[in-house]
Automatic annotation (TrEMBL):
GO molecular function term, any single one: pyridoxal phosphate binding
Reactions it catalyzes: D-serine = pyruvate + NH4(+); L-serine = pyruvate + NH4(+); L-serine = D-serine
Protein's UniProt name: Serine racemase
Keywords: Lyase, Pyridoxal phosphate
GO BP terms, alphabetized: D-serine biosynthetic process; L-serine metabolic process
EC numbers: 4.3.1.17, 4.3.1.18, 5.1.1.18
Reported cofactor(s): pyridoxal 5'-phosphate
Presence of the UniProt keyword Lyase in the record: yes
Lineage top rank: taxon: Eukaryota
Keyword Lyase tagged: yes
Residues in Tryptophan synthase beta chain-like PALP domain copies: 19-303
Pfam families, alphabetized: PALP (PF00291)
Amino acid sequence: MSISIPEMRAAHQRTAPFLHNTPIMKSEMIDEKVGVPVLFKCEHLQKTGSFKVRGALNSAILAKEQEAKGVIAHSSGNHGQALAWAARKIGLPCTIVVPKNAPISKIEGMKEYGADLVFCDASVISRETVCAEQAEQLQYHFVDPYDCETMINGHASIGLEIIDQIGDTIDSIFLSVGGGGFASSVAYLIGNLRPDIEVFLVEPIEKKLSELLQNGVPCPVDTLDTVADGVRVAHVGTLCEPILKRYCSGKVIGVEENEIKEALKLVWTRMKQRIEPSAALAFAGVLYHKPAHVKNPLVILCGGNVDLDYVI
C-alpha cells in the first residue's frame, strides 16, 4: 500500500462512520494573549481520547480483511488505547507492549478496551524487541505506531475535516511531532491539497528535528526526557522522514518544558479542556514562538489522556 491522496480519502470513508468529526474551538482570552485569533481542532475529544484512533481503525479494518489472527503494537498509551478500541470494534484480539513508565491512566485505558498487556523496559529498543518477539509468538499483525502506511493514510482524515471546517480561515497548522506518523500524514495531505497552508511541527527542544531534516543529523538519544509522554520517541520513522523533509523543512519549532506546562495550564484554566501535555506542546509553539507572518493559526490538540492526579 502507498501513501497517497486516494488512499487517504479511502481511509476516511472507511473509518468516518465510527469516529467523531471533532469540533473547532477558540478562546477570546487566548486570542488576546497570542495577539492573533487562534483556532483549536479538539482531537482530545476523539474516540479513545486522541487522533491515534484514526490510523488504528484503518489499520485494524485492513488487517481483518487480510484475515489477520490479531493485531499487536508497542505504545506508551494513546496508540495502544486506539488499537485496542479498534480491534474490539471489529472483533480482533489485540496485544500491546507497554513501557513500565507509561501513565497509569493510559495503562488502565488499554485494559478497559480489552487489550492484553505485556510490559517492557522504558526504551525504544526494549519496546521494539519485545513487540517483535510477541508478534512472532502470537502470529499477530504488527501495527507500527508511526512508521506505517495504513496509520499515516488513516490519520489524514483529520486534515480532510480541517479543510472542510475552516480551510478558508486558517493560514497555518501547528501540531506536535513524535515518531512522525501524524505529522507526515497532515503535512502530505495539506501540502498536496492546500499548499497555501503552512504546517509547523512543534517538538521538545531536545529532539532537534531540524538538524535531521536540514542537515541529516539524527537526534543523539533514543528517548526524550519530557513531560509530553506521547512524544518521547526521539526519532521519526523512515516513511515519515522524506515527507517531513519535503513539506516541513524550516518549519520546526522547539519548546522548553516550562513552556509546555504553561500552555497546558492556559488551556485547562481558560478553555476548560483537559488536554494532555503532548497536546499542549503544539499550543506552546504558537504561544511562545509563533512566526510573525502567521496571522490565523490552527492548533491540533492531539490528545486528552492524562492521569487524574497529574499536578503541574
